[in-house]
Amino acid sequence: MELTNELAEVLGMFAADGCLQEGYICMWGNIHEDKDYYNNIVCPFFSKVFGKNVVAHEKKSNSVYGFYLCDRKVVNLFRDFGFTNNKTYDVAIPSIILKSKDKSVWASFIRGFADCDGSFSLMKRKGKYGAFKLKFNTYPRVEMTSVSNQIISQISRLLDCLCVEHTVNTYKSKNENEMPSYKTVIRGPSKIKVFMDVIGFHNPSKIIKYKVWKKFGFCPPNSNIEDRKLFLIGTLNPYDFYKD
Prior knowledge:
By secondary structure, this protein is of the alpha+beta class. The protein has helices at 5-17, 35-50, 72-80, 95-98, 103-117, 131-135, 149-161, 189-198, 204-216, 225-233; strands at 18-20, 25-30, 57-59, 64-69, 118-123, 139-146, 167-171, 181-187.
């Protein structure tokens, strides 16, 4: 297939949240936060790239929202891209992305991954800061997480090539039976601005949280996507989410 930005982004989505089986692929997101993302981004991208009518639906038993795509040719394509049935711990960036010299392709892959297995969060500050920063969640952070050390290391190298400053951290589980997780972390307003300019998000739940932060200087961590929509249009007060 021709390597387009749309295909690169689809591969990033799938590396994060996709599942490959013998006769189908599937993708699932959060039933509450990701509906807009699946309806407006994920399904249209998959439909365009593979020439299929991909429509998402709820799976209430698991509190997820997504789709199955039952097509042998599509399954074989994902195998050709290097994905396996048990990709959780060894998933990697497809070689077609790594071999590309196109920075927009790299950014598209990372965007797809970050929209699915990434987060935009805001932290309270500790120490010698003003009352506003101590009380409200003002300090921005973008994280991308996986239990595959390989893909986080590869994403880190692409971020270096895109001049997006970040750190890579390892988190060991307290449960000896669980594998460690790996994260790329981008912290602080100036570095977040570079990330948004170069890569950004397509997932509305993350974009809306970013817009709330830009408008108010903070975003309550216990708000949901519907709350944040109301913050932006002025019918709900984000300050009300903090107790005195």
